[in-house]
Every structure is written in C-alpha cells, then in structure tokens.
Amino acid sequence: MEDGIxxxxxxxxxxxxxxxxxxxxxxxxxxxxxxxxxHTGTLDPFATGLMILVVGKECKNAxxxxxxxxxxxxxxxxxxxxxxxxxxxxxxxxxDTKPGKIEIKDIIKKFIGxxxxxxxxxxxxxxxxxxxxxxxxxxxxxxxxKRQITIYNLKVVDYKYPEIKLIARVGSGTYIRSLAEDIGxxxxxxxxxxxxxxxxxxxxxxxxxxxxxxxx
Length: 216
What we know:
The structure is a single chain. By secondary structure, the protein is of the alpha+beta class. The chain contains 5 helices and 14 strands. The strands form 3 sheets. Strands 1, 2, 3, 4, 7, 10, 11, 12, 13 and 14 form a 10-stranded mixed sheet that branches. It has a two-stranded antiparallel sheet with strand order 5-6. Strand 10 (147-160) and strand 11 (163-170) form a beta hairpin. It is globular and about 60 Å long. The two termini are 16 Å apart.
C-alpha cells in the first residue's frame, strides 16, 4: 500500500514501536523503498489489541486518530500494588480483604464521567522534555500532573476475587493502569491492571485487524 491505515492486533510482550518497526521493514522491502509508518497511540508491552498504523502521507493525520474514543477489556487484580501499574512491575501486598460485588459496582460508578486522573509515571508522557518512564527508570521522583479525562462507560463483566473483569469505553488520554490503581485505592485494598486488550478505536474493531504474524 502507498498511503492509508493498517489495523494491527498487537500481541503481548512487544512494544508499539516494535510493531511499527516490523511493518515498516516489511512494507519497505515489498516496495523496494523506505516507507514511512507511524502509530496513532501506543499500547503497553503487556497489553494486546487494536492499533491503527498510518502509512505514507497519512502519517500527517496521526494525531486525528489518536484523539478518538477507545474501548478496552481489562482485568484488575485486587490486594496488591505494582510499581508500574501492570504485571511487569514489582508487586507489593496491600490487603487480603475481599470486597463484595455490590461494593465494587458502587465504587466503579464513581469513575464514570469527566474525572481527573494522574497518568502512570511509567508512561510515554514527557516531563521537562523527557519521557516519564525514562526518568522513572533512573530513579527520579516524578510528580505527574492530573488531567481531565472522560470515561463513558464501565461495566463489570465478571468478579472472582482477586480479579475484576471490566469493559471500559473511554476518551483519549485515559490510562487504564491508573484507573485500576484508583479503583484499588478507593476500595482500600490496592490494585493493578493484570490484563489489558484494546478492542475498539472509534468505528474500527480488533476483529477487522491483521495479526502481526501476517507481516514477516
């Protein structure tokens, strides 16, 4: 393809930049020239699901895609905190209290709408011109400024302690890792995001996406 978008179902264990590099290499080889490829919003290495890649002249429209609403399937693990907000961080036991399903649903309702959220320190957000995750890895103490985000809908689809399975439809800039931590804090037991899958970006669905293995 010359210009346009490619939908990719990102596998776990790979960075978004690694996905872009793979697609760029394959397309450049096919076309016998360097092809410009970019992403329109990263997914954490542990996460899976839909990425929209922009190719060629469509790269100039990357920001437009990044501002679109998104839907996630998430598993929140209760009772522990993670240094990164996900299973790749150092885990700390917080509480063995088992919240009830009604309590969880009541707490989750409080996050629907426009709320203020602090992004994770292990994120690609720039602080003083540097990526926050790079500063965090160097041991710098980082104060992440809160920002307003929108959560349109949160639905508990299953709860078997210690895991809550949610479907979340959110606006641009929402971090599900931060949401998991905030839910854990409000429940008083601690939590982190154990699994994350992005299933939709606006009208595009992960079922329509190519597997990364299609590009070898």
